Amino acid sequence: MLFKTRFHEPIRRGEITCTVRIWQRPHVTTGGRYAFGSGSIEVGRIQEIGFESLTPALARRCGFSSLVDLLKIAKHGPGERVFLIDFRYRDTPIERAPRTAPSANELDELVLKLDGMDRRSAKPWTREVLQLIADHPGTRATDLAAQTGRERDEFKRDVRKLKTLGLTISLEVGYELSPRGKRVLAADRRRSVKHRRTPD
Q: Taking the complete model, does pTM exceed 0.85, yes or no?
């Protein structure tokens, strides 16, 4: 969950513990933790409210200077649904997948793991999903899944498998490849080219 810089210190001091977002759908979940500087934000509750519930008092409670200020900042894209999100700041960071570049041996091991995941599935999917995320970072899982002809929940389960290997990073909306994921995808392409070569 992203906040403008002017909200950061009040959030760290515990002076702001809620916010409003105007989205097409929720982008956070109750109990979810999201990176926030050197710490994290933990969502305690998210509830959908009507526009009539947006008042100057609520705006001030969320750290906005006015209701107009809230409406200018809280609206994201074409969304028309209003969400009130209660949260708390934690001074401990969330654990992320490894983002360091793997060694040559680690690259080989990761490629073999992807091969194994593909063999255990009805059809190969790992490279397709990695390439899709590489080509469309920050795109909703629903839209990415539609490009593969799969259901969103099935697609998200597979992305979580790749995240466990440290190959993807979850964003507020969508995903991106980690440095490790980019290296693995590049190494896999080189391997594919090498295997396609024929002797002179």
A: no
